[in-house]
Design brief:
The structure is a homodimer.
Chain A: H1 5-23, H2 27-46, E1 84-86, E2 89-95, H3 109-125, E3 133-141, E4 150-161, E5 164-173, E6 176-186, H4 194-198
């Protein structure tokens, strides 16, 4: 399974539009960029089957219909992260544009939490353990995490006790840790009763 | 100050496009919707000054150029939240569409953290205290927070010790708490040295 090239192409254009909206304060310049992107969208929509992408976002077999706002190739909110395994760790690298900014020049603290939640969640079930859900997540902001520079987001299992997985992770920029995370993920008693189990 | 009606109009169309991308799995149906939205964008871009909005998103005087991915009227990533004061609390209500989903039917845990970080941050400086930054944030997920239902996100100061503010908050759905949050926000020694202060 993979995301349709037309959907992914439209998603990329939507991300470009988002960047333009937060970057251009002058309406005339913004309008020119919007017209340009809208024309590209309309052209692709006229013949969606003709769209080809040389470099599609990697989609894991387990998540063919991934629409999460972190890793999906068809959700413009997602950077998107491509989460991979490196030994015991789940890891992603990304460079975030201006639409993810909080304080000037820095990634929004909540966007940092969003990425870490996804990467730690991935690590919690990556080793063949059943899917689990976040019960508690703590993010410690040690330093500035910059917009426009490469971030490395990593997470791993610290320990497992029955259905509980104690997770940890961090974001590093140029080898320096800027943010640390730890948390508890719990696997439902039965996979099918996930919703009921988490409602308590 | 307010956001330009053209920028806000384009942002709303971009959010509609995002919803379509995560909702329509059939490329033909998606292409029809993309063509429709692209035409509306192009029409507005031809004469941006003519765009009028009956119901602009409220923009606080202190944040005229707000581009955060939570509350900005011109950032399509933002729902957007309109954060208001209710007594001692900073409060926002919102209904989230499918692009904010994590597990099926539920809001992504990281999106929950994103909204709480913003609302607690707002509360940390809403009473005239200087602007402060998140040092640590803990989110506890007690139950399912649904997509498509009204969420109430609230935050307040629990205590202040010098430059430290201990914050707390929660999300409620139909009067039931689904998520709790607590954290530490710290005001920089001097407003102008915010970046340097947080780098340690």
């Amino acid at each position: 399974m993979s995301v349709s090239p037309f959907a992914e192409h439209t998603t990329r254009l939507t991300r470009a539009l988002t960047t333009a909206l937060v970057t251009e304060r002058d309406d005339a310049a913004l309008a020119a960029r919007v017209a340009e992107i809208a024309a590209q969208m309309a052209a692709a929509a006229q013949d969606p089957e003709a769209v080809e992408l040389a470099d599609p976002h990697p989609v894991r077999a387990a998540f063919p219909h991934d629409i999460t706002p972190v890793s999906s190739a068809r959700n413009p909110i997602a950077p998107p992260l491509a989460i991979r395994r490196e030994g015991e760790d789940s890891v992603a690298t990304t460079v975030l544009p201006l639409q993810y900014q909080g304080p000037p020049t820095r990634v929004h603290g909540g966007i940092i939490a969003l990425m870490l939640d996804q990467v730690l969640g991935d690590a919690s079930s990556a080793t063949g353990l059943p899917l689990s859900f976040t019960r508690e997540l703590t993010i410690t902001y040690d330093g500035a995490t910059p917009i426009g520079e490469e971030l490395r987001i990593a997470g791993r299992i610290r320990s497992v006790e029955g259905r509980k997985r104690f997770m940890e992770g961090e974001i590093t920029v140029g080898g320096e840790v800027t943010v640390r995370a730890h948390g508890l993920w719990i696997a439902p008693r039965e996979q099918s009763s996930a919703a009921a189990s988490l409602q308590r």
